[in-house]
Structure formats: structure tokens, C-alpha cells
Amino acid sequence: MNVLAMFKKELRSYFASPIAYVVLIMFALLSGYFFYSLLTFFSLNSLQASFNPAFAQGLNASEWIVRPLLRNIAVTMLLLMPAATMRLFSEEKKSGTIELLFSYPIRDWELLLGKFLAALALYAVMLGISLLDVGMLHFFARLEWGAILSGYLGLLLLGMAFLGVGVLASSLTENQIVAAVSAFGVLLLLWVIGWSTEAAGPTLGPILSHLSIINHYDNFAKGTIESKDVIFYLNFTILCLFLTLRALESKRWRG
Amino acid sequence: MIEAEKLTKYFQKVAAIEDVSFTVEKGEIVGFLGPNGAGKTTTMRILTGFLPPSSGTARVAGYDILTDSLQVRRRIGYLPENVPLYTDMKVAGYLDFVAEVKGMERRERRRKIGEIMEKCRIVEVQRMLIGALSRGYRQRVGIAQALLNDPEVLILDEPTVGLDPKQIIEIRQLIKELSGQSTIILSTHILPEASMICQRVIIINDGHIIAVDTPENLTARLQSSAKLLVTVDGPADQIGAALIQIPGVLSAEAKDRARDAVVSFVVESERSRDLRREVSRMIVERGWGLLEFRPADMTLEEIFIRLVTKEEQEVRE
Ligand SMILES: Nc1ncnc2c1ncn2[C@@H]1O[C@H](COP(=O)(O)OP(=O)(O)OP(=O)(O)O)[C@@H](O)[C@H]1O
Ligand SMILES: [Mg+2]
Q1: Are A80 and A23 spatial neighbours (Cβ–Cβ below 8 Å)?
Q2: Do B83 and B170 belong together in one domain?
Q3: Furthest-apart CA pair in chain B: how many Å?
């Protein structure tokens, strides 16, 4: 019940400030643009394929449009997720409202969960917007919905991990800019860490590849849901939330 | 209702409060009085569970603040020093959120919020953004959120600071009205305020409690001599000389001269001696007019300054 109260309050705050609108509008613009350019590229190729039946074999809308679209959305999230989470705790600390919040009979994990879920809801709205584009495609092309839904599940899990990092960063500072920039930096690092796996050698390579936050997404994109990937994202998120709880506690201990 | 036991809080290596012990009985209004940086806010933050003490503990409403923080927080209402409220929320929406977090059912919330908005006189601003409210109304909303769960203990950190005189009077009145239902502890550095609303005063300076008593007792305890205020219609120098000659009078000081012939004297005598009869008889016998005659109490302000300076002298010695 307390979680629900916190969730509603936080969601209301999102839409009382420009942050939610900016994030949503930027997302709609970017994902709309990605979709449009992928679609034109695809139809150009389809046109050529009509003269070359062999080429047409490998041409399907799921693979040529939806999969790269979801991948691009994941990249956008690197930027938008830190913006969505930066104020969650920083602002409470800066304005002092956290002092009152801590005097209410609400457990630390309840207020953390409420805030996290509010950010997740905002993210879900973004995914919903992109699903409108994909749904439109359904009327013009044959789509492999299994792979698409698995891709969306991957995006959702990936987003949760991103939010976890953002929430943690927000609980460590009272400056929103610092929270956003450090969350972005950490996420980018966790992303690019997978690029150097070959150079890193036989021992370090697999570790880096396992830590890489985006490598675990690839299977989802191909349409296979593997439990090790699901578990990776869930563990990663839970670890972040756990560290956030510790940060909140120590904030209390230090004053 | 509140039992603080040797509360000590260090920030880095500096003690903000040290060995602070006091009790507050059910239904009391107790004032926490001290200059800036005395440790009032620190003590209150410890009581609400926001800050943990470095050592010592306290029981609030029967529960230990360290081991049963949640139970304590169910039973308190807190108004922090700078009234930190969510500026992007509307008054009614904010109160609804607080009531929900405090565990009230939807139907009960409606009724209670209406009742409290009426009590705190914020009904007319309920649709406004908190960020757009004036200081006085913010303060009222702050008090309203503290009252939502019918708290057994109300902790108010400088509830009247920054308000205009009319609002100060209204807020004080409101606090007095609340004393029926809750035990109240409030901090202030305005002395008349403490003596006006509080049944007991805890004077704290530099992290140490230096006196706990009723405002009247504090006054009495600190007067090492008894003082009388005498206003007489007659020649000032003659009156002064005559007063001094009464056995037992230590000093007679002319205070102010309203008109030529009317003078006020503060007559100081040894504490054990009551010289009221002698003084009044002398004045009447000389044929002067006795216009005013009353004991001149030390104001709480004077006591406060004395206590604080006395303590500092002791430390120096
Ligand atoms: N978070 C903190 N970090 C370091 N020192 C602190 C902190 N909070 C308070 N102090 C110190 O503790 C002492 C007591 O401060 P406190 O705020 O309790 O005083 P106060 O009696 O409330 O004063 P005021 O009347 O100005 O509100 C001060 O010397 C202050 O500098
Ligand atoms: Mg203070």
C-alpha cells in the first residue's frame, strides 16, 4: 500500500515537471525517425527484390525493420534513462523533503520500490509508443511476432537494469546533473566493455562479455529467451536497488 | 511520552549534543529553548529517526527510536525546521499522499483531510501549488501534514519562525488548541514564546541541557534577590535616599521618569526578606503618592542570558 502511494506520487511528479514530457517527446521523435528511415530502406530493397527473386528470399520486415529499431531504441535509452531517474532521490535530498519522508511510517524499500516502479512505468509508456509504429507495420507486412515480443521483453529487462543504475546514482548525490552524467557514464562503459572481448584474451574476454550489459540482449533480439540472460538482468537490477538501499541507510547514519 | 537518555551526537569529531536526557509527560507542551547551533534540531532529528544518535537512546510513545523506529514513526507528527514540502504538488493532493503513506484508508482520508484543513485554515488554498504559497500558508500546510495521523507526539522545529506577528499569534493559538490531543515538543529561540505556550522549558546551550523547569520556577530559581517595582509621585532624589535607608534594602534604582513628579524605582532586597510593608509604609508616611507597587520578575530573557553566561563562566574556571 505504501509502495502504491509512493508510486502514484512519483508518477504525478513526473508529469508535473517537464522531464516526463521532454523524455517522451524526444523518444517519440527519435524512434519515429528510426522507424521511418528503416522503412524507406526496406521498401527500396523490396522494390529491387521484385526483379531478383533470389534476393527476396532473405527479405522480411521483422529482421530488416523491427530488430534494428529495437536496437536503436536501446541506444537511445542510454541517454533517456539517466534523465528519467536523476531527480528521484537527488531532488528529495536537495530540497530536504527526504527528512519528512523518512519521518513517515514507510520502510526504505517501500519508498525505493515506489520510485523505481514509477520510472519503470514511464519507460513502459515509451515502449508502448514504439509498439504503435511496429503495430502499424503489421498491416503491410508479415511479422514474426514471437521474435518481436521476445525483443521487447529483452528491452524491458535491459531498461530495468538501466533504471537500477540511474536510481543508484540519484541516491548518491543531491545534484541531478551529477546523477545523470555518472549514470550515463557507467551505462556507456558497461555497454562498450563487450567490444573489447577479443582483444582482452581468453580469461578476461568471457568475463567482460558477460558483464557487457548489451551482449545479453542479443539472444532476445534473435527471438530466443535464455534464462541466463533473464537472470543476468534481474540480478543486475536487484544489486543496484540493494546498493541504493544501503546508500539511503548510510545517508541516515551520516546525517 | 518521550524519554531521552544520554543522547549524544557527533558530526565528524565535534559533538552537536552531549548527554542530553529529559522526559516529557503525556499531554505536556515542552519548549526546547536555545540559541543558534545549540542542538535543538539535532535532538529533534534523532527523536524522529532521521539521525541516529552516536550514543544514548530515546523512547517515544513507548517505543525505542533505534529498534522500533517504524512504530515510533506511526505515532509522531513532525514539522522540520525549513518546512520542506513538495513544491510541485497541490495542497490537497499532497495531504492525500501523506495520509496514504501514514496508512489511512481512502474514506477516512477524505474526512480527516477536510477536518484538518479547516483546523489549520488552509481550505481556501487547497487547489494551489505548494510552491506558490506564502510562507505562512506553507507553515500551516506543514503543520497539517504533521497532524494527519492524530499523532501522540508532535515535534515542531521552530514553528513560528519567519511569520508576521499576526500569523505568529494564530499559529501559537493553533498549537495551544492541539495540546489537548497530543504531547508537544517545540523548539524556539524566542523566549516569550516559550513562556507563553509551554508548560515546561528545556534550556539547551552548546549541546548541553542547562535547565529544565516551568517558566515560573525558572524565574524564581534564578532570582538571588527579590525585586520590587515601585512607582511613586514625588521628588526623585528624596525618594531614592529614603528607600535606601530602609533596613534590608540593597539598592534602589530609578528606572524611568514618565513625568517630572512620577518616578519608578526597582528596589532590590535580600531574597529571604519581604520588605513590602516597610516600603509602602515609608512612602505613605512621607506623604508621597504610591501609584504602582508590584514584584518585578526577571524575564525569561534575562534568565536565559544568565544561564548561558553562567555556564560559560563555569567552563572557564
Ligand atoms: N549535518 C551536519 N553536519 C555537521 N554538523 C552539523 C550537522 N547538523 C548540525 N551540525 C552542527 O551541530 C550543531 C547543532 O546544530 P543544530 O542544527 O541542532 O542547532 P539548532 O539548535 O537547531 O540551531 P538553530 O536555532 O540555528 O536552528 C551546530 O554546531 C551545527 O553546526
Ligand atoms: Mg534548528
Answers
A1: yes
A2: yes
A3: 77
pLDDT at B13: 86
Count the helices and strands in chain B (H runs, E runs).
11, 14
The residue out of B193, B214, B235 marking a domain boundary is: B214
Of the candidates B197, A215, B57, B285, the one whose C-alpha atom is nearest the C-alpha of residue A207 is A215
Q: Whole domain around residue B257: which residue ranges?
A: 224-296
- pTM value is 0.83
- pLDDT value at position A253? 52
pLDDT in tens, B218-277: 766 666 567 788 888 888 888 888 888 888 888 888 876 656 678 888 888 776 677 788
Q: Is B41 in the pocket of ligand 1 (CB under 6 A)?
A: yes
Mean of pLDDT values over A129-145: 82
- Measure in Å the smallest separation between the Cα of A254 and chain B Cα atoms: 8
A107 interface with B at CB cutoff 8 Å: yes
The answer, yes or no, to whether any atom of ligand 1 lies below 6 A from the CB of B189, is: yes
Global ipTM: 0.86
CB of B39 closer than 6 A to ligand 1? yes
Q: Which of A6, A12, A255 has its CB closest to that of B11? A: A255
Which atom of ligand 1 lies nearest, measured to the CA of B42? 18
- Asked if residue B104 belongs to a domain, the reply is yes
Query: Can you name the residues that pair with B29 across neighbouring β-strands?
Result: B184
pLDDT reading at B301 higher than 70: no
Tell me how many domains chain A contains. Answer: 1
Q: Which ligand 1 atom is the nearest neighbour of the CA of B9?
A: 12
Query: Does B272 lie in the same domain as B186?
Result: no
Query: Is residue B48 in some structural domain?
Result: yes
Say which amino acid occupies B184.
Answer: I
